[in-house]
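Weekly modeling sync, notes
Attendees: AB, CL, MP (scribe)

Item 1: holo prediction request
CL wants a bound-state model with zinc ion before deciding which constructs to order. AB pointed out that an apo prediction alone won't tell us much about the pocket. Agreed to run with the ligand included and paste results into these notes for async review.

Input as submitted:
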Amino acid sequence: MPELPEVQTVADDLNQKIKGDVITDFWSEWPKAIKGKSLAEFSKEIVGRKILGARRIGKNIFIDLSGDKTLYIHLKMTGHLLVKPAKSKIQNPNVKSNPKSKNYFEDKVNQYIRHKWYLTDTKLRNIDESTNKKSNVIKNFVDSNSYLPDRQAFVGSHRYDKVIEFSDVRKFAKIVLDDTEKIAELKEIKALGVDAVSQEFTFQKFDEILDQKKNALVGILLMEQNLIAGIGNIYRSEILFDAGILPARKAADISKVERKKLYKVIGKILKKAIEMRGTSDSDYRDTDGAPGGFQKVLQVYRKAGEKCKKCDTMIERKTIGQRGVFFCPKCQK
Ligand SMILES: [Zn+2]
């Protein structure tokens, strides 16, 4: 499942690629993913809105739209968002001849398209040119930055420059569209603890969490989204290995010195994973459909039976918190 570094990579990509674009159409073959609205209601509400930006809290993506609406997406097990140029642009011969720009969109993992958002690139269409009559609808809409009745002019127009395609083989992903202020009030968002790379996640805060949850095993505590948001199965194993702490130890038994080390390592590993565009150990892909890089530097995750890179001892796997945790019995105390 995508964790903090993967979701951050997606949010950063979206900000680079689609900020300022207008949604001109929506298609879905799996409307069950859309919570609280029918497909027709969802389409009607989202079409014509401008994308103001993307952000992340924990493992959740928020795409803020004009008219104070927010699209909230949880990728769950296998979901990932692909941003593709309109067909004519994919077939650009210049793109094909450049060996560096491999077309990852053709990879099998990116073929399970359940939903599509069609986008009009307002910059590309020179919407500032007041002489261009055709663009006036878009211009008015974008300038107002809010809901306009004539946004319905976009429905079914298929006048698009890009498309966001949502690939999700297992179909567990979740999509919610609501008022921006209401999204923050959703039960699962409100219940989230401090974000693991936010300014609020200080050593003092981490120390307090460990004190509050004296009897919790550190391998479980790190994954509790209502305590610290963003860390999942992959990074808890990697963090605990780097910090030299066994996952089955109780929070109360972890010394001040170890806590300081663990806190530093959380920041270090997550930052490195963001820089490497996340871990693609299974279905996660970035918005180009390309895998991340962190799976190449994993030390223990899914490496049971292999030799530890530091000491040659066999890496072990244990089930803690219903999920497998991986560790070196020698390097970790
Ligand atoms: Zn070792």
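Recorded for review: The pocket of zinc ion is lined by residues 308, 310-311, 313, 328, 330-331 (CB under 6 Å).
Action items: CL to compare against the apo run; MP to circulate these notes.
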